């Protein structure tokens, strides 16, 4: 909305609203202030409404039953509120990519909210059935796939780009939509599996989002794409504002989610944020790079898949418990130790992913 000021008042200070960097800073601080202002009131409301809070898995680490019982969930509402307000205020609302990512984010947020609501209402960790969740997620991702093909220029629409290789493009044609479905749903569920310890998911999400904010800004400018040998995707620079809002909202949430957590983001937040990462990766044509930058999420997801498949086949477990962060808990690692080390891994993977931009 503020971008329109540069059209109404084409002089002086208001010209700043034309710059993505300025508006990104505004979005970041708006979301951060939103998180600080509404965090505690939201937690108080969730405590009153939820009573016993998020149900804790009985087969999980015993320390969780003692330490985390009664903690409210659905804290992802705080992040989503901050993102929505900041993006609508600071982004160009005539940009299709902004609306695409908002659509994916809040569609998955609604799926997660429904799941959290059923868990709290029934006081068990089984919410919406896995088949329904996946079905709804794939439907949202299919719409996003068709949408992004319509937004992108014909020379790149429906194509898969490869990192490192400058001119490598694979024409997936209409198979691009099923590919997008896998990327977005996989990303959403990978972040969801990672969200099992205080602060474990939100910081890696912010690190990955920050990396994709840089990518979105670069691929949305012809001067940088020509210099770096990237594929130009007109309009993606505006996603930098969304990313800045996500980071600001994420920091505001982390203030209350830091150990010991006063609130959990729940599936409301984890599915939404994971879906957002997937959507931004698709929009910027860096889907493969997402697997590098979000490598921590990939490992968390694979640990669950491998554990389930191996157990069904042999009746035995590879990990002491899945997702893999619980495996390390069972080995005796402290929660803060796991969380901080996983943050470090996320940062390293993000730097590796960003390095692929120059390796052409």
List low-confidence stretches.
none
What is the first-to-last residue Cα distance? 37 Å
Helix % is: 55-70%
Structural class: mainly alpha
User: What is the number of helical segments per DSSP (H or I, 4+ residues)?
Assistant: 15
Order the strands across the largest sheet as they lie in space: 1-2
Mean pLDDT: 91
Order of helices and strands: HHHHHHEEHHHHHHHHH
Query: Would you report the number of β strands?
Result: 2
- Classify the beta-strand content into a percent band: under 5%
Taken from the alpha-carbon principal axes, the silhouette is globular
Q: What's the alpha carbon Rg, rounded to whole Å? A: 20 Å
Question: What is the element layout, followed by pairings?
Answer:
Elements: H1 5-8, H2 20-50, H3 62-67, H4 76-90, H5 96-122, H6 130-151, E1 159-161, E2 169-171, H7 176-194, H8 202-219, H9 222-228, H10 239-257, H11 266-283, H12 287-293, H13 295-314, H14 324-330, H15 335-355
Antiparallel strand pairs: 1-2
Q: Describe it for me?
A:
The protein has 360 residues and is mostly helical. It has a domain at 96-240 and 253-355. The chain is 67% helix and 2% strand. The chain has 15 helices and 2 strands. The chain has helices at residues 5-8, 20-50, 62-67, 76-90, 96-122, 130-151, 176-194, 202-219, 222-228, 239-257, 266-283, 287-293, 295-314, 324-330, 335-355, and strands at 159-161, 169-171. Helix 4 (76-90) runs antiparallel to helix 10 and helix 5 packs antiparallel against helix 6 (130-151). The chain is globular, with a radius of gyration of 20 Å. The two termini are 37 Å apart.
């Amino acid at each position: 909305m503020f971008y329109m000021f540069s059209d109404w008042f084409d002089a002086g200070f208001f010209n700043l609203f034309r710059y993505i960097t300025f508006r990104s800073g505004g979005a970041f601080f708006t979301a951060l202030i939103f998180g600080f202002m509404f965090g505690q009131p939201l937690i108080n409301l969730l405590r009153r409404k939820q009573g016993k809070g998020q149900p804790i898995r009985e087969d999980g680490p015993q320390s969780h039953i003692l330490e985390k019982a009664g903690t409210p969930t659905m804290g992802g509402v705080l992040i989503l509120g901050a993102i929505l307000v900041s993006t609508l205020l600071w982004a160009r609302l005539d940009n299709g990519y902004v609306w695409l990512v908002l659509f994916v984010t809040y569609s998955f947020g609604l799926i997660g909210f429904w799941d959290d609501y059923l868990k709290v209402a029934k006081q068990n960790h089984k919410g919406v059935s896995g088949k329904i969740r996946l079905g709804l997620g794939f439907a949202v991702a299919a719409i996003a796939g068709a949408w992004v093909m319509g937004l992108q220029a014909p020379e790149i629409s429906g194509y898969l780009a490869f990192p490192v290789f400058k001119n490598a493009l694979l024409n997936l044609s209409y198979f691009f939509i099923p590919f997008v479905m896998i990327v977005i749903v996989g990303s959403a569920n990978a972040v969801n599996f990672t969200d099992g310890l205080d602060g474990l998911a939100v910081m890696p999400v912010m690190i990955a989002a920050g990396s994709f904010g840089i990518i979105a800004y670069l691929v949305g400018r012809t001067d940088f794409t020509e210099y770096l040998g990237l594929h130009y995707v007109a309009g993606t620079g505006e996603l930098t504002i969304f990313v800045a809002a996500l980071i600001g909202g994420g920091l505001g949430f982390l203030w209350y989610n830091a150990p010991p957590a006063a609130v959990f983001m729940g599936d409301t937040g984890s599915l939404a944020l994971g879906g957002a990462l997937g959507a931004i990766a698709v929009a910027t044509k860096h889907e493969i790079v997402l697997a590098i930058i979000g490598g921590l999420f990939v490992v968390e997801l694979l640990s669950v898949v491998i554990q389930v498949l191996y157990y069904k086949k042999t009746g035995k477990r590879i990990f002491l418990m899945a997702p893999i962060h619980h495996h390390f808990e069972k080995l005796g690692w402290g929660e803060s130790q796991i969380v901080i080390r996983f943050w470090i891994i996320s940062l390293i993977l993000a730097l590796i992913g960003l390095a692929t931009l120059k390796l052409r």
